[in-house]
Description:
Radius of gyration: 17 Å
Structural class: alpha+beta
Bound molecules: zinc ion
Number of domains: 1
Helix content: 10-25%
Shape: globular
CATH topology: CNF1/YfiH-like putative cysteine hydrolases
Number of strands: 15
Largest sheet: 6 strands, mixed
CATH superfamily: CNF1/YfiH-like putative cysteine hydrolases
CATH class: Alpha Beta
Number of helices: 6
Strand content: 25-35%
Strand order of the largest sheet: 1-2-3-15-7-4
Amino acid sequence: MIRTVSERFLELEEWKSLFPSLTALFSTKNGGTGTGAFQSLNTGLHVQDDEHTVIQNRRLLAQAEGTELNMWIFADQVHGKRVVRVNRHHAGMGAESYEKSVRAADGLWTFDKGIRLSLGFADCVPLYFVEQDTGFIGVAHAGWKGSVSNIGAEMISQARDAGVRPEKISVLIGPSIGACCYIVDNHVIHHITQPDMQNVYQEVSDGQYKLDLPLYNKQLLVQAGVKEENVILSGLCTSCEDTLFFSHRRDQGKTGRMSAVIGWKEN
Length: 267
Ligand SMILES: [Zn+2]
């Protein structure tokens, strides 16, 4: 069950008891200082909102979460599958300047405590990763391009190479556009090449398909070695939940970004 912590944040109830020293949050569009299409808690620096407003919003988020913004790490997201290991020396990267964010990365992971890994979303699928024994945590951004290129498996692969056992990794698939609101054409469906994925899309009219990106990512993660019972789906659609979230599709491209944030609380 996802629940509201404050007007600015949602969190996953199950993970709170399983991982008491973990922060894993998804921001809402509320409680910020932005106006117009970006009303009000836009946290994306690259969407033509006022830069100072966005930085102010990020500070509000960090404060609500209990850290300083200079402990947060942001990425320059390009709908790719590149996943980057970061550490405490990267703290603050991209927090106040898009140019200083981690270059061309759609996934961040670490073993370090104290820092916060943050990616921006407005319909794409946020994937949160945690393995308590090693302290492995990560976050990834999976739109349809990141999903068909299997960024989730890339994260699992890097974690495995660093000594983390995939069957011990837990994954939260956060709020994203749901199959209810996501119609794509043949071009997208043709990119789905992994085995046993016929159940993630359904033809609704000639050449038009409903695509279930959260389910698709869940199945990719299970194929990559994550246990099915260790994957939790939020069940929230960013397009349907219009009082909570910005939605790129619903808002026709001009909209803000929510943040998916993960980190260990202690320093
Ligand atoms: Zn929906």
